[in-house]
Amino acid sequence: MGLADLKLLAVEDHEFQRGMLLRMLARLGASEVSTASDGAEALEIIKARNPAIDIVISDLDMPGMDGLEFMRHLGAAQSSVAIILASAVESVLLDSAETMSRAYGVKILGVIQKPITIGKLEALLRLHGAAPVAAVGARSGETICCTPAEIQDGLRRDEFELFYQPKVQLLTGEVTGAEALARWRHPRHGILTPATFVGHLESGELIDTFTEMILRKAARFCNDWRARSGLNVTVAVNLSSRSLADVRFADRVVQVVRAENTAPQHIVLEVTESATMMEVGHALENLSRLRMKGFGLSIDDYGTGYSSMQRLAQVAFNEIKIDRSFVTNATAQHSARVILESSLDMARKLKVTSVAEGIETRQDWDLLLRLGCDLGQGYFIAKPMDARAFLAWIWGGVAPR
User: Fold this and answer.
1) CATH 3.40.190.10 assigned to 148-396
2) pLDDT digits (tens, 9 = 90+) for 278-294
3) Phi/psi class of residue 129: alpha, beta or left (left: φ > 0; alpha: ψ in -120 to 50)?
4) Which of 122, 169, 270, 304 has its CA 20 to 30 Å from the CA of residue 64?
5) Minimal CA–CA distance to 332: which of 99, 127, 106?
6) Range list of β-strands (E), 227-352
């Protein structure tokens, strides 16, 4: 669909700026543009229009219903309209408004800090129809509900398996390891992600059985991969906060991994910051014991919680995994880039490995390379794959350089 075919809505209370925006849109070939002076008027136009509005270009600071409230109402209505936020507010506030809008489930094409230029406007308009960026608070679309009994049956039938996403060295493109991600190959629903079943596993007290199964399969795969390739690679496994609350957990992990003839040094255990905040003493004892036994410890989603730095001081983590939100937004948001740079600087000073997750574009890769990040993973490199596809990718795939 070309720009001439799109139905646009300009939400702007300032008459002169509204006129400038309309002239830019006309120069770009837009033929159908409606206008509104605030969010309330815009909502009425969106409700009344048939065919529907495709793109809204909205200011934030407006009398009546401002842009923030407008975004909230769009999210509540689950509107499919795409949004460009254009405002003269400071950049950090504009970034915050973008993040808030995504959290409400609004489809954001991007933001422009005024004055609007025709080049920036055209670039964002042409994103319409491209694959949408996932909204933080949006519904995932995976609405399948499974009961604890079904999950228990799935465990008994060995329907759960691991998909693997490669971790590569940014400087060389060399594959150094993989993260093991649980998937349920459901007989009726197909491949299901953890969002469908982890909550039931934890509430139904099946999480320890599940974690031991995951560790066993990951250790077995790691052995197979190392034997076939001769490479010094590792496999990372995520741990549940509930498991860390049991002081016997570390000993069980050691037993499971060694039973597969895998050295602990080849397994990295990923722990979210929140996991260390439940039963703090027990969690720290488990993590310290696991580190003493030789396991790698990674603090996952680094930067998303207030006590990340405190946890780094308390636990002998040897890897920081920087949350994807800072990686994805770093090329466009100043605040996200500052947090990313600070996290990488801290990793260097602490002499721990830095890992960036959520690398989606060449821009992400190039920025992280310039900033000196050690390892990366994300769809730009490869999506998670089952064991057979992963090994085929390793033999035939080439990481970006």
Assistant:
1) no
2) 567 788 888 889 999 99
3) left
4) 122
5) 99
6) 234-238, 267-272, 296-302, 319-322
Third-level CATH fold of 3-125? Rossmann fold (3.40.50)
- Residue tagged 């006129």 (tokens): 19
Domain boundaries, the chain: 3-125, 148-396
Distance CA 144, CA 151 (A): 13
SS3 of residue 227 by DSSP = helix
Q: How would you classify residue 35: left for phi > 0, otherwise alpha for psi between -120 and 50, otherwise beta?
A: beta
Q: What is the DSSP string of 85-152?
A: EEESS-HHHHHHHHHHHHHTT-EEEEEEESSP-HHHHHHHHTTTTSPPPPPTTS--S------HHHHH
Q: Given 3-state DSSP classes, what are the helix, strand and coil percentages for the chain, each rounded to the nearest 5? A: 45, 20, 35
Q: Is the pTM of this model over 0.90?
A: no
Residue 364's Cβ-count burial label (10 Å; 0-12, 13-18, 19+) is: buried
Work out the burial of residue 73: count CB atoms within 10 Å of its CB; fewer than 13 is exposed, 13-18 middle, 19 or more buried. Answer: middle
Task: At 154, list the tokens.
Answer: 């799935």
What type of residue is 186?
H
DSSP state of 378: S
- Is 399:175 a contact under the CB 8 Å cutoff? yes
Could you report the per-residue pLDDT of 109-165, keeping only the tens digit for each?
A: 989 989 999 988 998 998 886 544 444 433 333 445 677 788 889 999 999 999 999
- What are the contacts of 150-157 at 24+ separation with CB within 8 A? 151/184, 151/197, 151/200, 151/201, 151/204, 151/206, 152/204, 152/206, 154/184, 154/186, 154/197, 155/206, 155/209, 155/210, 155/213
